[in-house]
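Lay summary. Proteins are chains of building blocks that fold into shapes, and those shapes determine what they do. In this project we predict the shape from the chain. Here is one chain we studied, written as its sequence of building blocks.
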Amino acid sequence: MSRPSAARIVVGVDRSYAGLEALRTAVRLAHREGALLHAVRAWTFVPLWRPGTMPWLWQDEFARSARIYVREAFDAAFGGVPRDVSVRVVAEQGYAGQVLVDHASRPTDLLVVGSPRRGRFGTGGGHVTRYCIARSSVPVIAVPAPAWARADAIRRFGRDLERFAR
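And here is the predicted shape, written in a compact code that computers can read:
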């Protein structure tokens, strides 16, 4: 039984190895299916002062930073946003799993997320991946990091790069 073509492919954007591989997979699927690719980055801000007092200017700045983050992920994965696929960059406030599940809500959508390595006790994926798989009403593809990125030394090197790049 074949699945009808997805109208949209929604991908959660993360610059981890698994996140970049998920982005590559989503672009390949969008190209193959002729679907629109929604590159989604969620952002949160928890103010230390009274809730509800965050100025709108800050919200705009966080959303702008999230859109820049998505473009940088495309740069890292492809050298820029691919021209042969229709891409819509989405930056929404909220927790990543909830934002992704809410955004991929049409019956023909397909959700693609990066899946970190398996844990010690056989539990697979990170908390966002598990949330999406458990609560999504559309098919979810959990993409692991490339095999070369799963080596312990490479993972430690990647974590160090992320820490010093901030």
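What the prediction tells us: Helices lie at 17-33, 56-78, 96-103, 127-135, 152-165.
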